[in-house]
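User: Show me a protein chain along with its predicted structure.
Assistant: Here is one chain, sequence first, then structure tokens.
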Amino acid sequence: MEQFKFHVGLNVSDIDQTTSFYKRLFGQEPVKVESGYSKFELDNPGLVISFIESKNPSPSFGHMGIRVNTQEELAEKKNELEDLMKIELEEKNTSCCFAVQDKFWVKDPDGYEWEVYHFLKDDDKMGGRQSISEENKELVGCC
């Protein structure tokens, strides 16, 4: 039986910058590139994500994440990415969305936030995270 894959389509301001960012984040080439469009298909996690160049992209929906299976995978992904892009925020043993996690955050060229995290254990509180904007340091929702 074929595994289902989650699909996300995002409007972006510059398809070339976006494609370059996601090639580094996902560690692979897109499966399709057209004028104003690119698409990646990932097996792990099962995801199809496409990008459409737009005059008014809006990253106000929240964030996306990649859950890794071990602390070693988290460290490996962070080491791989920190030479290529800015790690916006790193959190250790943080309570967020009723779970305790280690994680770090990156932003794509349009400001879409990605958390790369390792789940440690369930928690009994919602928790939060520090805002990753320089001007706003309060706790914000993480889910």
